[in-house]
Amino acid sequence: MHDYTLARLREGLLGERFSATELTRHFLDRIARFDGELNAFISVTAEQALRQAEHADRNLAAGRSSALTGLPIAHKDIFCTRGVKTTCGSRMLDNFVSPYDATVVERLERAGAIMLGKTNMDEFAMGSSNETSYYGPVRNPWDRERVPGGSSGGSAAAVTARLVSAATGTDTGGSIRQPAALSGLTGLKPTYGRVSRYGMVAFASSLDQAGTLTHSAEDAALLLQEIAGLDERDSTSLDEPVPDYDRAIRTPWEKLTIGVPESFFDDGLDADTAAAVRAGLSVFEKLGATLKPVTLSHIHLSVPVYYVVAPAEASSNLSRFDGVRFGYRAAGDDDLIELYKRTRGEGFGAEVKRRILTGTYVLSTGYYDAYYLQAQKVRKLISEDFRLAFEDVDLIAGPTTPTPAFRIGQKVDDPVQMYLNDIYTIGANLAGLPAVSIPCGFVSGLPVGLQLVGPHLREAELLKAAHYFQLETDWHLRTPGIYR
Amino acid sequence: MQWEIVIGLEIHTQLATASKIFSGASTAYGAAPNSQACLVDLGYPGVLPVLNEQAVVMAIKFGLATGCRIAPRSVFARKNYFYPDLPKGYQISQYELPIVHTGRIEIATEAGGVKTVGITRAHLEEDAGKSLHEDFRAYSGIDLNRAGTPLLEIVSEPDLRSASEAGAYMRKIHELVRYLEISDGNMQEGSFRCDANVSVRSRGESRLGTRTEVKNLNSFRFVEKAIEIEAARQIGILEGGGSVLQETRLYDPDRDETRAMRTKEDANDYRYFPEPDLLPVVIDDRLVEKIRATLPELPDAKRARFSREYALSDYDAGVLTSSAALAKYYEETVLAANSASPKLIANWVQSQVIAALNEDGLDIREFSVTPAELAALADKIADGTLSGTLANEVFAAIRAGDGSVDTIIEQRGLRQITDEGAIARLVAEVLAAYPVQTQQCRDGNEKVIGFLVGQVMKASQGKANPKQVNDALRKRLRE
After folding, report:
1. What distance in Å separates residue B86's CA from the closest CA in chain A?
2. pLDDT computed for residue A85 by the predictor
3. Which of A298, B185, B243, B376 has the lowest CB atom count within 10 Å?
């Protein structure tokens, strides 16, 4: 059962070929068997999952099923879950049990999904390799000496090794798409505001967006259907109708023009990866799409812009972790300032501190105009480049990452090299656009991702292109040998 | 040297919304500590602010009442600093683009003139919680009930030139926010407080001197005293050849002094930046006009109208319009009255009514005597049914809830005796009882007539019309 997509599992449940309880036990067994070597989960909520499964079985038996009834999923440990600890991959929140559910969690539960646990991640979602987690690195199921990508690395590894059928993630600069690419998954980052951020521990508020890591575009559509839509608790969530994604991706293929930013294929991109992505683009041509070169004049500035804006917002968002009301508190309470310093000094890891320092610096009097304000101006230019490009093309396609999965420890001492992992993904966050990474081939046994970026709120078109691609290819159905 | 004092005020007024500015928690004062702080107020991981539209409407009302420009687009910003009573580590405020700006208000000067004070801006922000240092040994308590309470910070131009002008300005703003019903203005509960920027310069100098910011001014008297003391301190420094240090100072009312809190050098760098969790506040003309239509008559306009329509002195009009509720009470009484003049009612409201409110510690809205009852009473005075003394007795009885004006007069037989025959009989009885004094009067001793009037009034138990008694006595004595 574990090699099924969500869509097939749903058919199995409705056809009574297996029960939700059997399915849940099966996946829990796999977690018990394999997660020791992968470290994909921070918390496994077996008891709660089995209770939910029993409930789902009763509903299925009574013919009362919702869209996701009985389907096992996992949540990135950035989403608050009532009664289950939410660590955000940090010592700071090692003891934090949220009193409420995030909107994403609430909506998936309401749709009948069963939560198996909370997945490992880079600390506060800051990282591209899952090596900054307080709970240790996650290993890539394709090669356990390699990283699964990050920050949603635990979700990626769990779905890749088929410890769970699908998982949620968050994407601030590529944190869904990059691990999806490095793990051979379909990773969807919706339009900024399409999915509520309420209950997602904030990293960079103007960039953060919840999304999904699944085996197929079809599964991504199933989950997006449930989590998308206005939430009055998030003022930045969009009050726009939610289309029927599952139906939309099955509509007949129409002529499509796909823009290819040729600058993405320069020296920074590994040659074998480039070849796999080009091969993927030719699949779209075979489907009848027209490829057309596009220019995004300012996209080369997206990494520096991101590393001003994201740390600036993070430095402020993370101020609430002061040891006063929740989370980690350092020993000794003789002096308030000392308490702050020790709590934050001991509670945060090195990468988080680096970004808080950077963010504090760029917002300081005398530097604000040169860094923060300048970055915001360039951010507008990058958005404008995309807007202009979408006047000529329907979607933009290219590589998701410069290389396949790298070795654990390889880039950990070189933050700039690490940051360059997100060079192709950050643009969509800065412009707030929807994007998806889909598997398009392998290099030395490691998966390669192809990224599609769409105009504002065009998730349906994006997923439809991905779905048709997946009807022509089977890269997305491959599983590393020992996890088959 | 002649010194000129230059003052600008920053007034923080708590807006009278039912819930907080970014959460649904109640703003009611006086609840048990931390019982009115929800997850948003506590700054829990993952929570987000949602703007209370009522606070926006209230800020616009203030802007319209002070001739401010209403910003078509204003932006919330984060002000970052660490403090235990600031749960998120930042305060959501407005920085570069406030909701209203560039307005003015008129104050009365001591010399009897009118002065226009510029209002630089007024912006929306959330209040912090409270640190409680007194009730704990070796600890500080944190009460976050106040965290997230909406504030309107009203910043004046440095147009004020004396402590009394600053006091007059603060009173004027206080009166206005209460008229607009956007704040209860309760200073004991901290709903209306202010910081003063004070500097001095030699008269005729156009540049501003170095200023200090005096914090913690939560009464009109403290504002005036703190400014006087701070200006004197600065003048003392300058006259001694020193220079004023730009710093934040705290006013200590117990010692009546200001003390340095922090200097410019160790001031926080607040690292303001636009709040990414909230959209810009976009206000169109339609909304502004809709709100304008709901504005009540403002204090200055009401005062002028009262003087004009009710033929009142400026003083009387000023007292009666000191609060919208008192003005409403007065006006309803005037409208309900038949024969009583607005002036008679003005006198009653200013004397007996206000005295009664003070005595019972009540607000006019809680007063037991309705405008209709007071009007009925005033009519009885105007038509001669009740003398002043009897009216006071009836007033006391209605306050006590003993019944309506008519029933009290009937039950207690308080109706004034105006019947000529009855008065003549009383006069005859008194003259017969006091022959010696009667003779003295007839001999031209005017002083004794007062004694005889008094005896007639006494015989009538105070109910005889005094003027009629006087007339009747003189008539009989001439016979």
Report:
1. 9
2. 97
3. B243
pLDDT at A333 > cutoff 80: no
Does one domain contain both B369 and B393?
Answer: yes
Judgement on whether residues B389 and B442 belong to the same structural domain of the protein = no
- Assigned token pair, B231: 């200006």
Contact B45 A201 (CB under 8 A): yes
Extents of the domains making up chain A: 6-259+391-483
Q: Supply the CATH classification number for the domain A6-259+391-483.
A: 3.90.1300.10
Q: How far apart are CA B300 and CA B321, in angstroms?
A: 9
Residues A456, A454: Cα–Cα separation, whole Å:
7
Q: Residue ranges of chain B with pLDDT lower than 50?
A: none
Catalytic (active-site) positions of A: 76, 151, 175
Last residue of a domain, one of B290, B319, B350: B290
CA distances from A369 to A185, A373, A374, B42, B272 (A): 40, 5, 6, 32, 12
B90 closest CA partner among B245, B215, B277, B225: B277
In this structure, are B257 and B392 located in the same domain?
no
Residue A157 contacts B, CB cutoff 8 Å: no
Q: Report the number of distinct structural domains present in chain B.
A: 3
Reported as a pLDDT band with limits 50, 70 and 90, residue A457 is: very high
Q: Are residues B88 and B104 in the same domain?
A: yes
Same domain, B131 and B152: yes
User: β-strands A435-443, A209-214: how paired?
Assistant: unpaired
Range of the domain at B449: 420-478
The pLDDT assigned to A109 comes to 97
- Mean pLDDT over residues A265-273, rounded? 93
CATH number for the domain harbouring residue B440: 1.10.10.410
Which of B234, B265, B290 is the endpoint of a domain? B290
Distance set, CA B419 to CA B390, B409, B432 (Å): 17, 17, 20
Record the pTM.
0.90
Which residue in the set A88, A100, A360 is minimally distant from B271, CB to CB? Answer: A360
CA separation for the pair A388, B8 (Å, rounded) = 49
pLDDT in tens, A206-220: 999 999 999 999 999
Tokens for B195?
């910081």
Range list of β-strands (E), B233-303: 247-252, 257-263, 273-274, 281-282
Q: What is the helix, strand, coil percentage profile of chain A, to 5?
A: 45, 15, 40
Nearest-5° angle of CA A336, CA A342, CA A348?
Answer: 130
Are residues B343 and B237 part of one domain? Answer: no
List the 368-427 stretch of A: residues with Cβ below 8 A of B: 368, 372
B46 to chain A nearest CA, in Å? 4
User: Which residue in chain B is spatially nearest to A319 when comparing CA positions?
Assistant: B89
User: For position B216, what pLDDT does the model report?
Assistant: 81
Question: Is residue A166 within a helix (H) or strand (E), and if so which, with residue range?
Answer: strand A166-171
Beta strands in A198-268 (DSSP E): 209-214, 257-261
Which residues of chain A lie closer than 8 angstroms to B42, CB-CB?
325
Same domain? For B405 and B363 the reply is: yes
**CB-CB contact of B66 with B121 (8 Å):** no
Supply the mean pLDDT for chain A: 97
Per-residue pLDDT tens digits for A117-162 = 999 999 999 999 999 999 999 999 999 999 999 999 999 999 999 9
pLDDT computed for residue B264 by the predictor: 67
Does A100 lie at the interface with B, CB-CB under 8 angstroms? yes
CB pairs under 8 A between A and B: 99
My answer on whether B205 and B254 are in the same domain is yes
